[in-house]
Amino acid sequence: MVKKEFMKGFAAFVAGLVFLLCSQTIPAKEYPTKPITLVVPSGPGSATDLLMRAVTSVAADYLGQPILVKLVPGGGGAIGCELAAKAPSDGYTLLAGSSSWSTGLPAIEGRSRGLEDFVPVCRINYSPTILIARVDAPFKTFKQMMEWVKGNPGKMTVSSPGPWTPPDVVWKYLMKITGSSFKIVPFQGGGDATVALLGGHVDAGTAIPSMAMPYRGTGKMTFLLLLDEKRHPDFPDVPTSAEENLDRIINTLGCAWRGILVPKGTSAAVVESLAIGFKKMSEDKSVQSLLQKSGEKIYYLGPGEFRKVWESEYDAYKELGKLYKK
């Protein structure tokens, strides 16, 4: 009788243990069980749109489910950010984050959604800013430009693809640290700003390497300065801000990163699964080939490293906001 009761108790213990183990492992294995939506807060053909479509084209191979890109332009990216922030924190709605709508707008203007609303999954890449000028501008180097500006206060016109975007804050920061003045002309995006420079409607502007690639060696624009610590492999003749002894904060302000964010409250297990999946997608040979043609490069950072970079950038933008509002 005792032996029989013992065997019943032992069987119940084993059954309970098996249930407990299964209940702890099944959720992680099940994610994802359906397609994932990636909100891109910009219009079709933007640098962020093209990058995200290239990377997620192989999502099913590494996550077991496709990632569907949903374009939600408007408000400088704020509308898409708002939509993603209010989505369930279950890993099925992601945001294509960027320096513009994930840092600039929330840190300085207090609109859009940023560091307090999202969990960083990974940085996919970043694009340093290149200062450019029209070919017939009265300067050919960065030093010559700053000397001309000081001798002709208020006369130089520069293009901006939007308020508190990396190019916009770079020009504002340059004015403050040099005590110079020039006119910032806003445009609806980087493409329009570049067209304006090529047409001679502004004296100077900015471009990221992928946008500048088609004009390399054509003589249609002058490349003045790369805002980075090291020279870019595709633009080896363009000097860096480090060589000009500019404050390193300008590199942070001029860095246009793109990464994956999820709504606050998303579990660590889901974040880890996504981070691993996006790393594999970024390393895929077909993705690398697509990006190479467009001039983009992968500079992947995992959740922890990405958070540090994002927090540092946030601090830099807040300081700029204080400086500019004085």
Please tell me about this protein's structure:
- The chain starts with a helix and ends with a helix.
- The chain is of the alpha/beta class and 326 residues long.
- 47% of the residues lie in helices and 17% in strands.
- About 6% of the residues have low confidence.
- The chain folds into two domains: 164 residues, 3-Layer(aba) Sandwich (D-Maltodextrin-Binding Protein, domain 2); 124 residues, D-Maltodextrin-Binding Protein, domain 2.
- The strands form three sheets. A five-stranded mixed sheet has the order 2-1-3-10-4, with helices on both faces.
- The protein is built from 13 helices and ten strands.
Can you give keywords for this protein?
10 strands; 47% helix; 17% strand; five-stranded mixed β-sheet; three-stranded antiparallel β-sheet; alpha/beta; 2 domains; globular; 326 residues; D-Maltodextrin-Binding Protein, domain 2; single chain; 13 helices
